[in-house]
Amino acid sequence: MRSQACSGGAKHAIQGFTESLRCELVHDRSGLEITMVQLPALNTPQFDWALSRMRCKATPVAPIYQPELAAEAITYAADHPDRREYWLGASTVATLTANRLMPGLLDRYLARTAPRPLRTAPARSQSAAVAVPAPQGGQRGHAAVRGDGGVSALARP
Could you list the residue range(s) of the whole structural domain that residue 56 is in? Predict the structure, then answer.
């Protein structure tokens, strides 16, 4: 299975869970509000750490945004939960809008374009680790937030 299928499946599972939880909160008259932040591709270490047996290194589909932008959007959404969803980045807006208006057309477009980053990514080292062997230490013992980028230019909305 390609990484896009796994990623899309996980995103839809989270969306389904969020919508079900929202219904239960309304039913229970809990007074709690829940919102979802739809994110674009992010420059995180997930592509460096994920188990992969592909011949080339997996990379996110461009445009790629820095994770700090996602953190800002999530913080904003937490402070302003009056909306059901927030969409971060033009690529997210375009994808979600196209999926709602022309899902078949979007399927055919993604079938032609989504695998491209996998074909153009640099070859993965045969000696590269296939999993994270131990917790990754960074500043104060925290793991790195950013990945190696995988591209020459990173987007900023």
Answer: 35-141
